[in-house]
Amino acid sequence: MRRVLAIALALSLAACGETAPLKPAAGKTLPVAAYGSENRQNAEMLLKPTPQAAPERSVELRKRSEDRTEDPFDLPPSADK
């Protein structure tokens, strides 16, 4: 019985998502245009991550195990403290 109730609750919550375009809340406006820009960004532009926030992968994943190269900065902790 609990499982059926949990599934029904999950489905009802999943069904309440809205797919309409985003709009500012009532009485609010979008942020002002950035300094030097002549037009304001819309909601879709503001939600798109910048390349710095979501960088593309620049290296291939390794397909098999390889020996590590010697790292001169991989030193054990010093006992001076």
Brief summary:
The protein contains 2 helices and no strands.
What class would the helix/strand composition place it in?
mainly alpha
Number of strands: 0
Main sheet attributes: strand count, strand direction, barrel closure: none
Coarse morphology: flat
Beta-strand content bin? under 5%
Total helices: the number is 2
On the 0-100 scale, what is the average pLDDT? 79
Give the end-to-end Cα distance, rounded to a whole number of Å. Answer: 61 Å
User: What is the string of SSEs from the N terminus onward?
Assistant: HH
Which spans of ≥5 residues are poorly predicted at pLDDT below 50?
none
Residue share in helices?
A: 10-25%
Structure description:
This protein is mostly helical and 81 residues long. The chain has two helices and no strands.
Provide the fold topology:
Blueprint (H helix, E strand, L loop, with lengths): L1 H13 L28 H5 L34
Any key phrases for this structure?
flat, 81 residues, mainly alpha
